[in-house]
Structures are given as C-alpha cells and as structure tokens.
Amino acid sequence: MKLSMEKINQNKTISSEIVLIIKDNLLNGTLKPGDKLPTEKELMEQLGVSRTPVREAIKILEAIGVIQIKRGEGMFITNNFSHFTLNPLIFSLIMHSNNMKQLIEFRQHFEILLMNMIITNEKKNIKNIEEVYESQIKRMDPKLSPEELALIDLEFHYAVLEATNNPFVIEIGKTIYEIIKPNMIHFKRESNIERTLETHKFYLELLRGNVDFKPVEVVQRMIKNNEEMVK
Description:
Strand content: under 5%
Distance between the termini: 41 Å
Structural class: mainly alpha
Helix content: 55-70%
Radius of gyration: 21 Å
Shape: elongated
CATH class of the largest domain: Mainly Alpha
Strand order of the largest sheet: 1-2
Number of domains: 2
Number of strands: 2
Order of helices and strands: HHHEEHHHHHHHH
CATH topology of the largest domain: Four Helix Bundle (Hemerythrin (Met), subunit A)
Number of helices: 11
C-alpha cells in the first residue's frame, strides 16, 4: 500500500512525523481499520528515512492502539478503533508530550476548568470523590511501588473527571493523565505521599465550598506542586 504523504518536515523528529503521516492517512480515509501497513523496509523506502525512526514510530502507534503487530503476518491498523484513538487533539497531546513543563501547565489550567464545572453545577455530586479520597488515606503505603502509588493517586483525578459528567472533558483528561503517569516519580519519599493527600484534601475543600475559589492562586499552587512531582 502506498501512503498519501507530503515531504517529511526535517524541523521535527522523524518518528513524530511518521506518526502524523499515519494519522493523516487514517483521517483522510487512505488507511482503514484492518488494513495491512507496508513493511519496515517499504516504509523506509517510501518515506526516505532510516530504520530507527520507523521502528520508533511503530512503537508509538502500537502503544496508543493504532496498530497491532501479528507475528508472521505484518502490521495492521487495529479493528478496535475508538474515537479516542483517532481524535486529532489526542494525537496532538501525545506528539507534544515531551514538553513536560507545558503539559503540567496545561494540566493545571485544565483542572481549574474541572473544578469550576463541578462547583457551578446545580446537581453537583462529589460523593465518589470523597469516597476515593478516604480510600486513599488508608491505601497509600510507602511500601507500595511508585507505579502502584501513582495509580492510586490518579483514581482521585479520574473521580473528579467523572464528576463533570462531560464526555469531552473526560476523554481529554484521561489522555493527559495517561501521558503524565510515566513521569510520576513523586512517591519515592513518604513525605510526598502526605503532600499528595494534602493536595487532594485541598481539592475537596474547594469542591465543598469551604475554600474561596481563586483560580489564579489555585493554579499557581498546583503548578508548583506538580513541577516537583515529575522528572
């Protein structure tokens, strides 16, 4: 199969450009679910690039569920598509995920949006958020691995997402957290577990209306806190 493509932009990483080429071919209909992709060698020849960036791009596409590799058969566009996989915004977030500082900043402004959506909802329901927080107090043990603790941390943020009852917000939020999760190394010291619980308690107090909602001050506090919690 010959892919539809323009010349690769040498100002960007080649692997990122290859991922974007596959995305564009999916969005314009050149590639469809179940289609077999060219081999590594064929991609190298079509795109005029070396093997390394092709393999890097394949790893990214496989990790985010765009392609699946069948041993002995080749690479295929997955048949199990969701709007999440093909959303151009989601792709954009993934492709810019190497800029952690800006991702953290975006995340915090995004979470201010979440707080405001919940606070201003006449049918506000934060019971699940409260239950998750109480559960975290009991489960966050320094003996757990950083990965396990990161998952417990994210349960709170997922509960906040769900409380918005907005599918667009939920999808974007889940993507942000999935991208940032590998960089969450802040549980290596017991003191950081306490800090996480304090932050979640602060979120809850905001949602309960026990703390004045001042977006500028809140986002500055969030950014400073999270900059210390990732690589």
